[in-house]
Amino acid sequence: MRDSNEAAMFLAQLIHESGGFKYRKEQSGGAGQDYGTRYCGRGFIQLTWEDNYRKASQSIFGDDRLVQNPDSVSDDPNMSMRVSVWYWEWAVRSAGGPQQNKFGMTTKAINPMENGPENPTAKRRYNFYQKAANVLGIRNQASDAWW
Length: 147
What we know:
mainly alpha
């Protein structure tokens, strides 16, 4: 992490996405989702879609092992974290939220379906961030802005 505020953002998203570090695999199993059950959400930040598994695998290992065995992302907590850090660096940080001090942008990069700060799930994520930021002593806390 580049700074403690970004670490608070990352931690808040991990807590939300994993149900407080309780789950490393999507509880609905992806049933009924466009991405299906094979590439359902796995990791502390729920990686979905075959293309994202391929990008993660190529970036981390230089091969397609995560596409061939997607359960490896959820079976091992170290792999769950490794993929989550990769996703944060690849998709979340590049969207600009941490740099612009806008927590909502980090949520949008992970799950754009939450539709902004009025959404109760987005608010829940932001509440996790505020708690993490308070624990870390961050005074200039990020807004929940999506833009």
